[in-house]
Amino acid sequence: MSPPLEAAATAETAGLSPVERVMAQGRRRATLIMLGPAFVASIAYVDPGNFATNISAGAKYGYLLVWVIVAANLMAMLIQYLSAKLGIVTDRDLPENFREYYPRRVSWAMWVQAELISMSTDIAEFIGAALGLNLLFGVPLLPAGFITGIVALAILGLQRHGYRRFEVAITALLGLIFLGFLYEALKIGPSASGTVHGLVPHFAGNDSLYLAVGIIGATVMPHAIYLHSALTNKRVPARNDNERKRVLRFERLDVVVALGIAGLVNLTMLIVAAKLFHAHGLTGVDTIQGAHDGFTNLVGGGAALVFAVALLSSGLSSSSVGTYAGQVVMAGFINLRIPLLVRRVVTMAPALIVLAIGVSPTSALVLSQVVLSFGIPFALIPLVILTSRRDVMGVHVNSRLTTTLAWGMAALISGLNVFLLAQTFGFA
């Protein structure tokens, strides 16, 4: 655009609201501008913890737990939309809203559990990226963990230049993960009939239940619930309810597309493992290194390389997003902000300890996802309560059906966790 035309366009939109200025770009361009927050949140749904749980589930049980991935992804779509809606309507994120409406001591308790969940999240993300570096370049796991921390900070530092660069970087990494597993699926050719049969809900003992809870914990991520409301909060400020309604319409599309891609990645991980390992009797493949070796031996070096690159992309991107979520949690619940470097060092410490003492990386990954699933109700229940309150949401309050579905999800996840505890400690 020439300078005179650019000046004319600026003058033409000078009196418009941020939403109106976006809409003035035309529908296609406006859609591209509005997409982004859900793509950042969705990277938490394809983090290295998903690699561990999905590969373990596919190798050991074949297509048995396909239905768990589909159900978890559908739940994630509704949950993430509610979080995004809370941020758009209230101009505050979930932790900030919680601090506004609940006693201070309760907010502090929520912050403590959220920080513990953040550390569990970091275990999955750091170990995954470290394994990726190890598989690709032979970097020992502990130094690889330090490299992960540095790169994650660099990715997060893109925010200093505006939210868009950060969103584009994370979306590009998500696309790389998606293309990697699309390649694996086309190369290996999972069974269509087996996948369809796996849509029928059933279990095969306590171990399959353990993995199912891990899949849910790796898919419906507590820190992503907190984060999404911050990503949409004042991103494109709306001045009235009509404008908020327009923004919410774009956000629904954002959630469906981003979480749809993440769901396809998770599904592909499991069915590829089912075809490659379970079908060949390799049901004991329960480590990421073992999966990488399996790709090498059964498919070839190209497939193994793609797998390692996808794992590294997942670890680096999810680690930076996890740090961002940690900032949101601390600032929101207790109104405290610390430098990014300090937060990164504190939350990465448990992961580095795991790497240093030589704990099985994949076992730590799966266990971290089970721990995450116990944090989901603490994020989900306040979200459902707040988005169901008319004094908080105004005309955008949840419908009765939405509230019923969300409460059903919270009850299901909590019930699975209680049952798993009872099974684990011999009470049932």
How would you portray this structure in words?
79% of the residues lie in helices and 0% in strands. It has 20 helices and no strands. It has helices at 3-13, 18-23, 27-34, 37-42, 48-61, 66-90, 94-101, 104-137, 141-156, 163-188, 192-197, 206-219, 222-232, 241-276, 288-298, 301-334, 340-357, 361-387, 390-393, 400-424. Helix 6 (66-90) packs antiparallel against helix 14, helix 6 crosses helix 18 and helix 13 (222-232) packs across helix 18 (361-387). The longest helix is centred in the middle third of the chain and has 36 residues, at 241-276.
Q: What percentage of the residues does DSSP assign to strands (E)?
A: under 5%
Distance between the termini: 70 Å
The beta-strand count equals: 0
Q: Could you describe the largest sheet, including whether it forms a barrel?
A: none
